[in-house]
Sequence to fold (702 residues):
Amino acid sequence: MSWNGKRAVDYRRIEKIPDDWGTAVNVQSMVFGNMGDDSATGVAFTRNPGNGDNHFYGEYLINAQGEDVVAGIRTPAPINENSANDQSRNLATLESAFPECYKQLFGYQRALEKHYRDMQDIEFTIEKGKLFMLQCRVGKRNGVAAVRMAVDMYKEKLIDANAAIMRVGPNQLVELLLPMIDPKAESATSPIAKGLPAGPGGSKGRAVFSSKDAVAWAERGEKVILVREETSPEDVDGMHKAQAILTAKGGMTSHAALVARGWGKCCIVGCADIEIADDNKSFVTKKGLTIKEGEWITLNGTKGLVYQGSLGLVDIDLATNTTYRDLMTLVDKVRLLKIRTNADSPKDAKKAIEFGAEGIGLFRTEHMFYGEGSDKPLFLLRKMIMSKTLDERKAALAELFPFVKNDIKATMEAMAGRPVTIRLLDPPLHEFVPHAADKLQALASDLHIDGAELKKRADGLRENNPMLGHRGVRLGITYPEITEMQVRAILEAAGEILKAGKEAYPEIMIPVTCTVAEINDQKVIVDRVYKEVCEKVGLKKIPFMYGTMIEIPRAALTANKMATTAEFFSFGTNDLTQMGFGFSRDDIGSFLPDYLTKKTLPADPFQTIDQEGIGELIKIGIERGRSVRPKLKVGICGEHGGDADSVKFCHRVGMNYVSCSPFRVPIARLAAAQAAVEDVLAKKSAAKKPAKAKKPAAKKRK
Ligand code: PEP
Ligand code: MG
Fold:
């Protein structure tokens, strides 16, 4: 049965459709579009599914069956001028070839869209001059079109604000954030071929010519573009693994175009300028240029242009996209959750604000020791780590202090008074020590320590289970001077910003805690340093909060104790998932695929919150925390903060905010709004049932 065929199984896995749903069958009497030149068949959409334009859009073939249109074997003709493209411009439109049928079809499509209040995908056949409607269903659309249609239909009063918000899948927004080819690089070169723009955005990769190769190459970490004559449902796995798809044949309603559109993948179809070699190892362009397997190509899926080589990609400018902004205005009105970002540089902070972030939920202090410009602070950190005595360590910390302070200050300034949660040093110290013998030797000579002695000290830091080892608050308990230096840096940075007449609001966060005694221990340091800093900068007070991450099951279970000192909780669901399941977050890759294939787990718990297990710990943590501190501020800063289903869960359990990477911020905003709308809809449907006690209206969370 087709339900169990490879293509159906692959498709369900990709689209997360359960295997046990089963399929339905409609039995209809047949009409024929291949009864001569007075017969035809076609596929049409009440609006353009590629860009959302409010124009009737579609393709048809004279003397053909429906399968011929979707298979992409013949170039279909446009139903009207609005549907014409470079390949079909010279073909007669349905409007001119069958004016009466077109008029009828046009009327039907208007009525259908009005009735269903959504864009419809319509199939029709003309048999000997008579129009038959075969079927209609809600049409698939890419993210750009989904946003445009939702906003337009709202403005046309076809749907209300809640419906508009629910119309766009959070992951469809990703498409609006898709990179595009750097305009400078694009204008400096010429395309080698042109096809139809079936899936937007820019993408690049090595050309491969079979779905099997696409899967194999992608699995070994290569970025590939799948180049095919045309695609068939057997290719879905390769199409999914590829960065983008390029086909020589097919129209905007061909298989490749439909599937790519559903996924929001960059895709060019009907690229008649390329001819694929018989051995399926290269293609040659009209001008005679050969592109062999493994060579880089770059696609502009928005315009349908193919380029040789690897062109630079840049992010798109959301500031000028008015439909996106209109949708986000609706979204921000209804959502109750605040959306913050995980950022640790002024650059990321600014990007996140552009995306709508309302604060930083996780500033990982250790990131200043990696990447560009980190040589000096990393050297000083290593010096501190390798110190033998308290005095040596304090001296190294004093040298490190200005770097830490300036780093935090720059990001706090970029956030302009929005809350910034700064987490104290988390990783085990051994992580910062060079591993290679030559690098360790070089460090020894820089630090003027004997090589063998340094190796001994480094070996002394090695742990069997570093993730469960000397990390997080445990470092602060052993080395209070490290906590002291960081807290001083945070408060002085905030104090100086306030003194300069600007705003700053730090939230000091203690990681990897499992008992309130740890939080209390560090609080003594914070209180002392706070007084000293206020005096030093000449301020009566520096507003800030003191809180903890909840990353260990014990912390969640004892949340009523943790919250006696902690003013806020931030659920670190990466570690909470690791410690709740006992799955190493770094090693799960070796067995997770088996768990997913056998359905031992429904999904990767590091991507989407395991609501029945880890979610229960979160619920308990919030309930117990708020039982002693009703206004306890609660958020999440694990990777799940950018996953739509997890964001909705966070809304339902009453968190105040979610925090995610800058690029996921718009997705989190939309998911939060959808969660609020789902509440309203659930209440409405409950209200239709026999009346229960009224609940007070939801209030905006702080
Ligand atoms: C977490 O554990 O969820 C977290 C945010 O911390 P990290 O990923 O840095 O361990
Ligand atoms: Mg963590």
The two ends are 53 Å apart (CA to CA). The mean pLDDT is 92. The first helix runs from residue 6 to 15. The domain at 179-315 is CATH 3.50.30.10 (Glucose Oxidase; domain 1).
